[in-house]
C-alpha cells in the first residue's frame, strides 16, 4: 500500500529528503549541502543543476535507508527556498545562468529606480510586496537583460522561468510540467494576490513576459508524476508543493487567524495567519498567500529577517571562533552576558522592519576585554532581537497581540537561543520536537491532496510533543538588552 511520503526540503544551504509514514513519523532522512557562490560583494548564487542532482541523491538515499520501494510512496512533496530565481532553456533543460538567490542584492539599484519612478504603491497594492531585491521579478529581469543570448532565446520561445519548486518539478517530470503553487507565485512581485493570476502590468513593468512563467495551482493538487528514470523506474505523484515558510506555518498547524510561527534558517521568517483576506496597507511587512487548499486561499502577514542562522555560520566559518557546536557551548559558558557587545548581521542588508538593502554588518560595543565568547553570544542574540522587531511590527499592523510563538528550524536546537528568545519577547516560545516543520507542512499538504489523510482533523491528531520555554528575565534587564540592540542598529542605518 502507498502509505509513505517522500518529502524534498530544498533550502538555501542544502537539500534534505525525509520519508514519513502514515502516522506522521519520520522513518528516514538524508541531506546534502550545495555550494554557495559569491561572484561579487552582495551577489549570491546557486547552481541549479547541482541542486537537482542533490535532490535525486538525497531522495534515493532516504528511500534506501527506509527499506521502501517507490511503489510504496503515496506522493513526493516539495518545499523550497522561495524567491530564488531560475531561467532555463526548455530544449536543452539547462539553466542559462545560475539561480539568483533570495539574499542577492544585485538588483537593489533596479528597485531604487522603480521606487524613484513612483511604482512601489502599485506593486504593493497588487502583489502584497514592496520593491526590494529580495523578490523574484527583478532577478528574472536581470538575467534576461544581462545574460548573453537570453533575448534571442526568449524570442525563439526557448526560455522558461521559475522559482526553485518550478525548476525541480520541471526536471522531475522530464519537462512535462511547468507549474508552481500560490505560495511561491506570491513571492515574485508578478502575481496579483487579489485576482490570483499573473499580473500583466507587473510583467510589463519588470520586463518578464508572462508566457515564460509557470501555471499557478493550489498546494494540495497533484502537479504531475515523476518521469526521470535516473530517480525512480516508476511514476510517483507529486503534490504538496509549498514555499518553506508557509509550509512551516501549516506544519505548526497555525490554521486560525492570529496564530504565528518563526522558522529559523539561513534567514528567519515570522509569519502570521490572517484569514481569507489580505491586510490593506502594511509598513515593513509583506502580504503573502499562506496556502491554497481545497479550492480556497488563506493569507498571511510576514516579516522577513535576511540573516539569522547564517550569522552563527559566519562566526564559525569566516571568523573561525569555534569548530563544533559542542565547543561553542563550552566557550559561551565562559561569558554568560554579552557585556554590551552586539552584532548587527546586515551582511545582505536588513529586512523587516528596516528594509535597508544597502546596510552593512557591524559589531558594536567592544572593549579591550571583549573575547570570542562575546562575539559568538552577540551572533546568537541578534537572531532573537530581530524576531522581536518582527513580532512587534506584525502585532502593530494586524492589531493582533502575540500570545505565543511556535518555532522550528535548525537553530531551535540551541537552548540558549530559545530561552533568550522567550525572555526578550516576554512570551512563551513553543519549539516543535521536529526540526523539519517545513518538510512536515508539505507532507501534511501533499498527504491531504492524495487522500492519505481524508480530513484536516486527522493532521491535528499527528501533532508531536512540543517543548515550552517560559520567560524568566527581569523586565529592566530585558529592555536594557533590547535598547542596546536598537542603538546598535541605528548606528548601522546612519552610516
Structure explained in plain terms:
The chain has 495 residues and is of the alpha+beta class. It has a domain at 4-245: Nucleotidyltransferase, domain 5. It has 16 helices and 24 strands. The chain has a seven-stranded mixed β-sheet, sandwiched between helices. A six-stranded mixed β-sheet has the order 3-2-1-5-15-14. Strands 7-6-9 form a three-stranded antiparallel β-sheet. Strand 22 (404-408), helix 13 (415-425) and strand 23 form a beta-alpha-beta unit. The N and C termini lie far apart (62 Å). The model has no long low-confidence stretch (mean pLDDT 92).
Q: Tell me the strand order in the biggest sheet.
A: 18-19-17-16-22-23-24
What is the overall silhouette? globular
Uncertain stretches of 5 or more adjacent residues: none
Q: Superfamily at the CATH H level of the domain at 4-245?
A: ATPase, nucleotide binding domain
Strand content: 15-25%
Amino acid at each position: 500500500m502507498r502509505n509513505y511520503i517522500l518529502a524534498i526540503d530544498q533550502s538555501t544551504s542544502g537539500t534534505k529528503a525525509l520519508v514519513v509514514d502514515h502516522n506522521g513519523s519520520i522513518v528516514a532522512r538524508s541531506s546534502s549541502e550545495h555550494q554557495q557562490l559569491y561572484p561579487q560583494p552582495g551577489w549570491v548564487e546557486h547552481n541549479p543543476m547541482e541542486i537537482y542532482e542533490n535532490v535525486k541523491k538525497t531522495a534515493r538515499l532516504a528511500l534506501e535507508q527506509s527499506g521502501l520501494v517507490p511503489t510504496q510512496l503515496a506522493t513526493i512533496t516539495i518545499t523550497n527556498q522561495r524567491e530564488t530565481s531560475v531561467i532555463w532553456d526548455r530544449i536543452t533543460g539547462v539553466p542559462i545562468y545560475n539561480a539568483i538567490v533570495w539574499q542577492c542584492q544585485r538588483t537593489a539599484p533596479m528597485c531604487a529606480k522603480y521606487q524613484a519612478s513612483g511604482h512601489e504603491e502599485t506593486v504593493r497594492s497588487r502583489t502584497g510586496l514592496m520593491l526590494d531585491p529580495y523578490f523574484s521579478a527583478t532577478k528574472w529581469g536581470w538575467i534576461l537583460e544581462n545574460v548573453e543570448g537570453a533575448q534571442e532565446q526568449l524570442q525563439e520561445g526557448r526560455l522558461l522561468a521559475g522559482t526553485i519548486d518550478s525548476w525541480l518539478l520541471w526536471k522531475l517530470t522530464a519537462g512535462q510540467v511547468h507549474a508552481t503553487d500560490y505560495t511561491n507565485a506570491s513571492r515574485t512581485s508578478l502575481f496579483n494576490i487579489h485576482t490570483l493570476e499573473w499580473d500583466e502590468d507587473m510583467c510589463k513593468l519588470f520586463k518578464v513576459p508572462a508566457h515564460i512563467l509557470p501555471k499557478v495551482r493550489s498546494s494540495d493538487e497533484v502537479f504531475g508524476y515523476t518521469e526521470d528514470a535516473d530517480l525512480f523506474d516508476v511514476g510517483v505523484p507529486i503534490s504538496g508543493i509549498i514555499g518553506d515558510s508557509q509550509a512551516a506555518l501549516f506544519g505548526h498547524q497555525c490554521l486560525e487567524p492570529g496564530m504565528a510561527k518563526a522558522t529559523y534558517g539561513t534567514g528567519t521568517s515570522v509569519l502570521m495567519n490572517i484569514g481569507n483576506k489580505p491586510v490593506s496597507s502594511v509598513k515593513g511587512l509583506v502580504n503573502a498567500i499562506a496556502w491554497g487548499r481545497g479550492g480556497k486561499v488563506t493569507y498571511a502577514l510576514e516579516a522577513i529577517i535576511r540573516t539569522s542562522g547564517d550569522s552563527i555560520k559566519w562566526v564559525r566559518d569566516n571568523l573561525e571562533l569555534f569548530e563544533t557546536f559542542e565547543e561553542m557551548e563550552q566557550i559561551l559558558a565562559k561569558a554568560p552576558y554579552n557585556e554590551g557587545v552586539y552584532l548587527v548581521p546586515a551582511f545582505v542588508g536588513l529586512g523587516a522592519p528596516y528594509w535597508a538593502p544597502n546596510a552593512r554588518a557591524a559589531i558594536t560595543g567592544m572593549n579591550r576585554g571583549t573575547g570570542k565568547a562575546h562575539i559568538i553570544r552577540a551572533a546568537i542574540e541578534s537572531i532573537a532581537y530581530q524576531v522581536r522587531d518582527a513580532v512587534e511590527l506584525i502585532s502593530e499592523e494586524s492589531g493582533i497581540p502575540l500570545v505565543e510563538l511556535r518555532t522550528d528550524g535548525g537553530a531551535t536546537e540551541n537552548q540558549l537561543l530559545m530561552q533568550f528568545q522567550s525572555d526578550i519577547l516576554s512570551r512563551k516560545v513553543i519549539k516543535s520536537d521536529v526540526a523539519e516543520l517545513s518538510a512536515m507542512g508539505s507532507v501534511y499538504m501533499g498527504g491531504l491532496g492524495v487522500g492519505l489523510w481524508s480530513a484536516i482533523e486527522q493532521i491535528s491528531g499527528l501533532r508531536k510533543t512540543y517543548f515550552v520555554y517560559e520567560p524568566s528575565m527581569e523586565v529592566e534587564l530585558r529592555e536594557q538588552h533590547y535598547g542596546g540592540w536598537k542603538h546598535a542598529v541605528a548606528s548601522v542605518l546612519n552610516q
